[in-house]
TrEMBL record:
This is Armadillo repeat-containing protein 8. Residues 322-332 have a biased composition (Low complexity). Residues 322-346 are annotated as: Disordered.
Length: 346
C-alpha cells in the first residue's frame, strides 16, 4: 500500500509539473498547426489520448478551454486532406477517450463540426479507420439523448445503417466496428422512440440474425451477442444505453408507441429467425429476446393448438377428479373389517 501511495503521489507530481510547464497546451497547439507532419501528429494524438485518460486524477490543467481547443484540433486532423489512415484512427481514439472521460467535450466536438466528419470516416474502406470512427460515434451518443438528437439530425441513422450493411457479414477484422455500430444504434434507440422506429425500419433485425450466425465459427460470438442484446434492449426502451443505466422515462403516448414498435419488430421475425435468436445462451441476449418474444401474439394455428391442448388438459384433470371421487365413495361404502385377533374393536 505504501508503494502504491508513493506511486500515486509521484504521478500527481508529474501531472502538476506537466500542467505548470504548459506541456498539454503545447501538444494541442502543435496538433492544430498545419506545419506538424503526419507522423508527429499521430504521436500527439496518442499523447492527448493518455492526457484525457489521466486528467480526472492528475493535475494536468485539462480545463474546458483546452478541451475545446483539443476537440477542434482533433476534428481538423481527422478530416485533413493530408491525414494518413493512422492519423485519422489516432484522432478518433483520442476523441473517444476525451468524450468518455468528460461529456462536455462532446459539445465542443459537435460545435467544431465534427459529427459529419466522423460519419465520413465511419464509411471509410480502412478497417483501422472504421473501427476507430464507429467507436467514437458510440461514445458520442452513449447515454446522451441530446447528442443522439444532434447525431440523428446529421444523418447518423442512415450512415450507421449503411456501415452495418456494408460490413455484413464481414470478416473477423470488422467485428469490433460492427459491435460499435450496434452499441450506437442501441443508444439512439433508447434515446427516443422516433429514432428507434427509423433504425428498425432500416432493416436492422434481419442483419442481426445473419451476423450472429456468421460469427459462430469465427472465434466465438459472445461480444456480438452482447452488442445485439444492447440494440434489442434499446429498441424496447431500456438497457445500458439509457441515461444512468435505467429505463428512460417516457410519456404514456411514447410508451404506447414503444410497445407497438417492439411488437411490430417481434412479428417481423420469422419463426426460424426467432428460434435462431433464442438458441443463444448469452444471458443479456436471452433476456432481451424473451421480452421481445413475449410480445408476439399467437397466430391462428398456434392459438387453435393452444386451445386444443388446454381442452385436453382439462379433460385429463376432470377424469382424474372423477376417479378420485369414485375411489373415495367405494372406500366409504365398504364394511368394517375386524382384526383377526378380535382386539381393538368392541
Amino acid at each position: 500500500q505504501g508503494g502504491a501511495a508513493a506511486l500515486e503521489q509521484q504521478q500527481l507530481l508529474h501531472g502538476q509539473v506537466s500542467a505548470e510547464s504548459g506541456l498539454v497546451p503545447a501538444l494541442v497547439g502543435a496538433l492544430a498547426s498545419p506545419d506538424t507532419p503526419p507522423d508527429a501528429a499521430q504521436r500527439i494524438c496518442w499523447c492527448i489520448y493518455f492526457v484525457a485518460a489521466a486528467a480526472p486524477r492528475l493535475k494536468l490543467g485539462w480545463d474546458a478551454n483546452l478541451q475545446a481547443a483539443a476537440a477542434c484540433a482533433l476534428t481538423q486532423r481527422m478530416a485533413g486532406a493530408s491525414a494518413t489512415l493512422e492519423v485519422k484512427a489516432a484522432s478518433c481514439h483520442a476523441l473517444s477517450m476525451a468524450m468518455q472521460k468528460d461529456a462536455r467535450l462532446r459539445g465542443a466536438f459537435a460545435n467544431a463540426g465534427g459529427v459529419p466528419k466522423l460519419l465520413k470516416l465511419a464509411a471509410d474502406r480502412s478497417t483501422l479507420v472504421v473501427t476507430a470512427a464507429t467507436g467514437a460515434v458510440n461514445v458520442f451518443v452513449h447515454r446522451a439523448p441530446a447528442y443522439a438528437e444532434w447525431f440523428v439530425a446529421s444523418g447518423g441513422v442512415a450512415a450507421l445503417q449503411g456501415v452495418l450493411q456494408r460490413l455484413m457479414p464481414g470478416p473477423s477484422g470488422h467485428r469490433l466496428a460492427l459491435v460499435h455500430v450496434l452499441w450506437a444504434l442501441g443508444s439512439m434507440s433508447v434515446a427516443d422512440v422516433a429514432y428507434a422506429r427509423a433504425i428498425y425500419e432500416g432493416g436492422v433485425l434481419p442483419c442481426l440474425v445473419q451476423l450472429l450466425e456468421a460469427c459462430k465459427g469465427d472465434g466465438g460470438v459472445a461480444d456480438v451477442e452482447a452488442a445485439v442484446a444492447v440494440y434489442l434492449e434499446g429498441l424496447q426502451g431500456r438497457g445500458p444505453g439509457a441515461p444512468d443505466g435505467i429505463q428512460k422515462p417516457e410519456s404514456d403516448l411514447k410508451r404506447a408507441q414503444r410497445i407497438h414498435l417492439a411488437r411490430s419488430a417481434a412479428m417481423s421475425l420469422t419463426v426460424a429467425q426467432m428460434a435462431q435468436l433464442k438458441a443463444h445462451d448469452h444471458p443479456e441476449l436471452r433476456e432481451s429476446v424473451a421480452a421481445l418474444s413475449a410480445l408476439r401474439p399467437l397466430t391462428g394455428m398456434a392459438a387453435a393448438m393452444a386451445m386444443k391442448a388446454k381442452q385436453e388438459q382439462a379433460e385429463v384433470e376432470a377424469a382424474a377428479a372423477a376417479a378420485a371421487a369414485a375411489s373415495s365413495t367405494a372406500a366409504s361404502n365398504s364394511p368394517l373389517r375386524v382384526p383377526a385377533s378380535g382386539g381393538g374393536y368392541d
